[in-house]
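stage 2 :: seqdesign
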């Protein structure tokens, strides 16, 4: 079955789907995106993803390509046409195509691209055994709260993690505090059992999975503090984990080769992980 994409008003097989060579997404990374989980054919936490999309668009002064009702129809139609039961739907909006000039074009129509594909759930061993992360300097810009498609530092960081045999790279700001992973949010559990993650300032993306975990933490009555933490504190933590739409929640058991806690997934992370899966299945 050939995969179908929605590109600027049409549903097309991938080999025919294309954007203009002067699209500003291609030339300037002048665009934003969202990745939404599909579970049993339904979109998980769609409203939060669309709210974040609108925030990103507003921050960059890019017009919405269509209203939310129409956008939801397109998202579902792309999922349906690709026969995705469990997977992801990806959407990207750029400022549109125009003669190359840095300042905004006078008239450009935003480009909307939507794709969807099935994914295998992450290898269950990752959840059972945990994953390793490395730490790297955060070389990104100062508006990481915008879900921009300008992801080169993230790409380089993830590749560095891969080459080091790690799942993710946690980025560290100039004050020695961890900001987030290259495509995930970073969390620790302190020795007194408090869950800690950085507040959603402009140095991190406010993850939708992060917000879902907040709800679970509140509901279950765990202690949560939003504050930055250093690499040393993370290494000395009782537990650590990361979250994202595609990784769900994965326990971090090694940071730069040092074991976290006993070097095995901790109980609180495992409870949150199970509760997150229940949430994703229930909201779907
Ligand atoms: N990444 N931080 C960064 C830098 C991210 O790119 C992502 C998501 C997250 C987690 O956000 P969420 O929980 O909403 O997925 C945090 C997506 C999955 C990606 O780029 O593929």
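stage 2 :: out
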């Amino acid at each position: 079955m050939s995969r179908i994409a929605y590109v600027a008003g049409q549903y097309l097989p991938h080999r025919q789907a294309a954007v203009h060579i002067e699209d500003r997404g291609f030339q300037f990374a002048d665009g934003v995106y969202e990745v939404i989980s599909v579970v049993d054919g339904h979109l998980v936490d769609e409203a939060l993803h669309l709210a974040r999309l609108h925030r990103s668009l507003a921050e960059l002064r890019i017009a919405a390509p269509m209203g939310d009702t129409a956008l939801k129809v397109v998202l579902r139609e792309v999922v349906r046409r690709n026969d995705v039961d469990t997977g992801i739907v990806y959407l990207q909006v750029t400022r549109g195509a125009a003669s190359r000039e840095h300042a905004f074009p006078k008239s450009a129509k935003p480009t909307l691209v939507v794709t969807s594909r099935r994914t295998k759930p992450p290898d269950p061993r990752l959840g059972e055994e945990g994953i390793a992360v490395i730490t790297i300097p955060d070389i990104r810009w100062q508006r990481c709260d915008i879900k921009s498609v300008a992801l080169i530092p993230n790409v380089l960081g993830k590749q560095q993690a891969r080459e080091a045999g790690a799942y993710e790279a946690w980025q560290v700001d100039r004050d020695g505090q961890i900001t987030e992973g290259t495509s995930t949010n970073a969390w620790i559990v302190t020795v007194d059992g408090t869950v800690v993650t950085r507040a959603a300032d402009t140095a991190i993306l406010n993850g939708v999975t992060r917000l879902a975990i907040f709800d679970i933490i509140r509901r279950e009555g765990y202690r949560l503090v939003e504050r930055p933490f250093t690499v040393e504190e993370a290494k000395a933590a009782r537990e650590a984990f990361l979250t994202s739409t595609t990784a769900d929640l994965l326990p971090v058991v090694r940071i730069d080769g040092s074991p976290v806690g006993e070097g095995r997934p901790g109980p609180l992370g495992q409870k949150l992980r199970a509760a997150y899966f229940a949430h994703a299945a229930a909201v779907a």
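stage 3 :: structure notes
- The first strand starts at residue 4 and ends at 7.
- Residues 102 and 241 are 39 Å apart (CA to CA).
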